[in-house]
Amino acid sequence: MARLVLLRHGESAWNAENLFTGWVDVDLSPNGEREAAEAGRLLAAEADLRIAVVFTSVLTRAVRTANIALDAAGLSYLPVERHWRLNERHYGALQGLDKKETARRHGAEQVRIWRRSYRTPPPPVEEDSPYHPRNDPRYAAVPRRALPASECLADVVARAVPYYVDAIAPVLAHGHDALVVAHGNSIRALCKYLEEISDDDIVGLEIPTGIPRVYDLDASLEVRAVRYLGDPEAARAAAEAVARQAG
Questions:
Q1: CB contact set of 228 (below 8 Å; sequence gap of 6+)
Q2: Residue 180: per-residue pLDDT
């Protein structure tokens, strides 16, 4: 049996300000740093967990969450692989906007559709915008046609799941535990695949920041159990707080 741990980064500075973030590279808030450290302590307390490899996105808030959590767990020596396919969903022209103000301007139902529907992306960002990944040097080696101007969750599934199959699943298939530190929507994409969640039901799944979600997998990498580490009520309350962000 192998274990896969999915960890959403700690609260970011823009999470704290209730702004749409997406691929914008913002750092953790002080609270996010505390969440990352607590995640590391939870990982260390899980006696049967033997993490061999860590995977993160290329965004600072995920990278720093991984670093802080690994330090707190005494695992800073572990190898880490980073890939843009684990990035957050690209929120297009919404990036940098206040979520509640956007709901007042466009209506709560339209914002709910942009945030939560499976196949409806927000309006795209212009190609000359600093928020378009074509203008970010960290994506210079990525084919331009692969870089999004906006994404729905279905788009994130289409890029994240093949990365899981090609890079993460082989580690698990050899019986090694793995940690993925990523984002709300890239983690939802992996949850959808692992748990075979329907397009309709995935809309209701909220991922709390800074709380490890552990999958027990059998030899065929089928899910046998899933749980959050720590207090289940704390995880539930944190997920509900995420759901309230757009009002």
A1: 208, 211, 212, 213, 214, 235
A2: 99
**What residue has token string 């899933």?**
226
- Tens digits of per-residue pLDDT, 186-206? 999 999 999 999 999 999 999
CB 157 within 8 A of CB 119: no
Per-residue pLDDT tens over the stretch 104-162: 999 999 998 998 899 999 999 999 999 999 999 999 999 999 999 999 999 999 999 99
Q: How far apart are CA 109 and CA 203, in angstroms?
A: 14
Q: What's the chain's length in residues?
A: 247
Phi, then psi, of 127 in degrees rounded to 5: -65, -25
Select 2-243's CATH number: 3.40.50.1240, 3.60.110.10, 1.10.238.10, 3.40.190.10: 3.40.50.1240
155, 89 in Cβ contact below 8 A?
yes
Q: Kindly list the catalytic residues.
A: 9, 88
- Which of left, alpha, beta for 175 (phi over 0: left; psi -120 to 50: alpha)? left
What's at 182, amino acid-wise?
A
